[in-house]
Amino acid sequence: MTASATTPNVPRNAVPPTADDVLALERTWRDPPGWIGWLSAINHKAIGKRFIVAAFGFFVAGGILAALMRLQLARPDSKLIGPDLYNQLFTMHGTTMMFLFAVPVMQAVSVYLVPLMLGTRSVAFPRMNAFAFWIFLFGGLVLYGAFILDIGPDAGWFSYVPLAGPDYSPGKRVDFWAQLITFTELSGLLEAVVLVTTVFKLRAPGMTLNRIPLFVWAMLVTAFMVMFAMPSVMLASTVLITDRLVGTHFYNPAEGGDVLLWQHLFWFFGHPEVYFIFIPGLGFISSIVATFSRRPIFGYSAMVLSLIATAFLAFGLWVHHMFATNLPELGKSFFTAASMMIAIPSAVQIFCWIATLWTGKLNFKTPLLFVLAFFFILVLGGMTGLMLASVPLDLQVHDTYFVVAHLHYVLIGGAVFPLFGAIYYWYPKFTGRLMSERLGRWNFWLFFIGFNVAFFPMHLLGLQGMPRRVYTYGSEMGWSGLNALSSLGALVIAISVLLFVINVFASLRRGERAAADPWGGGTLEWSVASPPPACNFEAIPVVHGRDPMWEPQPEPTHVAGLATTSRELLMTTVLDAVPDSRESFPEPTIWPFVGALATTVLFVGSIFTPWAVVWGSVPVAIALTAWFWPRRHENRAHLALEQQP
Amino acid sequence: MKRALHLVVAVAFALAGALAWAQRTVLQPGAHDALAPAGPQAARIGDLWDLFMVICGIVFAAVLITLAVALRRAPRADAGTPADVSMADRHEPGPYRSVLVGVGASIVLLFVLLVASVSTDRALARLPLQGALNLTVTGHQWWWEIRYDGDPVSETFTTANELHVPVGRPVVVTLRSDDVIHSLWVPALAGKKDLIPGRTATLQFQAAQPGTYRGQCAEFCGFQHAWMAFEVIADTPEQFAAWAARQRAEAAEPTDEKLRRGREVFLGSTCVMCHAIGGTDASARKAPDLTHVGSRTTLAAGTLRNDAESMTRWIRNPQQIKPGVNMPSSTLADADLQALVAYLGSLK
Amino acid sequence: MIENGSQSTHAAAMARREASAPAARAVGKALDVTELPSFAFSHRSLMWWGTLGLMAIEGMVFALAIISYFYLRTHADRWPMSTPPPALLWGTLNTIVLVASMLPNHLAKRAAERLDRRGVQLWISVCLGAAVLFLVIRAFEFAHLNCRWDTDAYGSIVWLLLGLHTFHLVTDTWDTGVLLTLFFTGPLEGKRYVDVSENALYWYFVVLSWLPIYAVVYLGPRG
Fold first, then answer.
1. Which domains does chain B have, with CATH numbers?
2. The whole model's pTM is what?
């Protein structure tokens, strides 16, 4: 226990930490017990786990919706599901996968892992982090509530006007969709701010920006993209609600509005959005390839620059979703060029990974298998992406099953397969047990085969003229065989996901116990126990290279002097991670949960009346003020540690 | 494991084959395949497609082969194998050169694809348009209104869901929408173009040989998006002229009692609220023009064959065939319905 | 720059510098951080980054709304479409009051950085008064826009721009009120002064983001 000259009465950690230090830290950083404690939790690992579980819950729900769609399309002229329900199914499937699974799950995993990788004990704004989780969860539940009550949206996951406008979609269906956007975008934006601040200010001493793991770079770049792209869809969906609720005319051509304004605003967000999903996947791949090749990724700087280049370029592609509209042809060609150009940084990354595998020593475990599938599936999806980037080709296959095939190849190959690999990889860290390697292989092969059987035929169906979003088709079209094959593939995917779920739950009880570092990884999360203690690190590490677990560590090795009976963290400078100040962090509190409830009431109320914005903001203001208001005992603890700058 | 895999794949293909064989044929649709072009626009796109397939195929194979070689030649390891950080922050010449070559080749190939794409785009825009046939297609929830813009204006006529064009003559289609966004797409002839409310777009194409080509709406437009199809029938110039002349004429007069009865039923029931028949008082434009409905090959926007049985089923209960469609079911007595169907069938 | 070359003066200067900029000290395996301050201003604080993130997001919303304004305008034959442009009086008045409020805002920020509780109480009160004043004037602005949100697309986009900014005014007024109350009742600590400083930063954003919106809403249709 060291002491400070200015604040001598507070216990602080020594290096190495004493038994008292460890005990005190555990008591300080854990979440309180009981139901209220569970709702008040703000530990990033608790929030991260809940967030991951919720996102996967939505994944399964979205998958069930897809299974129903494939059941209907397995035979021509099928009377199993009529157009009304089918339109809701594909709308809910797309909305769930894009807004409630793919983007949130990436943020969820990073909420758990980033503080561990950076060598700190918390995210920058732990209460806001908790709020963002609750808002996401409530938004999803509201949407599914609407679906179950038969007022779920049915105008597609990108809800084009005028079909989604007040004239052609009466009732509240589309409003529930638009408000879901508000929920999920609020959550996403807050998480982005949390992540950027965490990465810039809470790194371990010596972890210069040049030394952060490539996964953290991927999440940082994604967070910046989120901050600049999500506002577009927030704006678009909010004015869609006002068009529907209070008679504005943003999208009404009869009164000076424009139908394509929706498409521009939506796709300005929508194209970067697929990169919010894809880039974290690239981060997973870097982590897994490094560990299972027993060497750092080749070309760290090129990898970082590629991530940044991809993020920038992603903002310049959106019109490729609108090639069939009557925009000027010259403009469209620009977007063809940009859409092809973005392949270059992705190619750089792929070649660097192959170089890493080529010069490494390979450990073929399940995480690596899922990552290897990326090279097949994503690259194929990238090739069809180049085809879609070309205006003439796109004009044939736009809005057909060819696009459905492409988007699933890039999203599932580029993000979901790496995500599954990431779960197998980090599950021992989250839970202290390893997932079954045998079930993992079955999971992998069934998923890989099922995926290709389900989605490859769709390329052909699109070329043979089958449009998207059709609830059935005639037997004379010649599409029946390939559709049946695709549905069979979907069944195989379902089985593989079932195996995954079984593996996750069974391994919790019966998985082989995991040490701190079961895979021999190089980054800081592998230096702590599996699962980590509440405080993550008993002493904050000092870092001297990119792979602290693999490189010899000169002195100093750890940080001494942070309080053990109070939540105190070290803040370092942005570029060079020089220790800069100590900051006291908040304790668990119910207010993020209550605030999220109040916000939910406001959002849901405003689907029905604009006055909800006024009276709904009162409970929100109360909750947020109570959240902010300092508690006397916390204040006393902070004052005991206070040292002016 | 491997054998199970083979079995699964074999079963899958067998199943698909069986299903394909077991298809019933209700309709004989026109050609509906982007890879079977029947006009210069679709043909140029087809050529571009071939180039992309070759280049993308080569790139895909190259990446996979390189990966496969990498996986095979690398020594095996486990979690305990010490990680190699000897290259940290040092230049690795071998991988560096390889990545550079790979990226360089990718850039060159991307440039080739870009140039090919842009020049195809320009070629498509340069279809010679002298003597073009002018049409205006207005999209409705869930049918196509087709107006032949005649020159002089008195030669204008309107039909629905079926387009005739003369072979070898360019066609310029002006695209409008009455309600939501639709998209006109005839894969055998050209790429698609959206019909956007509040905007006017144009599409040009040409049919190179006689035949029937199917098109389908390609932008989700509500309940019956799935069944919003149409046919493009490419005639010889003489056949086309004859067809156009017939379409310009007013509706055929009933020639017997049953047909007269049919026309009375039409004019006396709710049909006239939406449908027009040239030469009668019915002139509503909310639904397809029926002046020459008997001459069309399909009914209900390409959904049914145009015969008496289908027509009867359609009029009696359209909601059964296309749930959500804007046409209500009818309450006509059987005899009246038969007369009506006969009358409509006579409007060739 | 040390002009006097004497060793002891140099050492004294170094010691003075180190004393005024506390740093972590490496002692064997340990890097001791006990001498570091427990709060810091500007980019050294988490709140600054949070505020900056919020400004980026909100700035993007404003930018997209302004772009939408011009987008709709290029598609229109007449602009405004069917109504007279907004009356200049109230908007210009509010602009003057908003810009003027940057002074008490700046003084509040300075007081916070000096850890001057009384100074903060004084200047934040003035800011709050200014905030209430512009909310009142904002009500008059809405009443004199000469169009409704449902008149046509022009009306819709003008109400949107003004509405978005008003939303920020309202939330900033509330934040300022809460901070002011806290500075009277306590409990206070160093971090709360940082909050005041960052609230002032956000206030600058609310004022500065108004200027382009003012130009677009009031001067745009007259251009």
1. 2-71+104-124 (no CATH), 133-248 (2.60.40.420), 257-345 (2.60.40.420)
2. 0.94
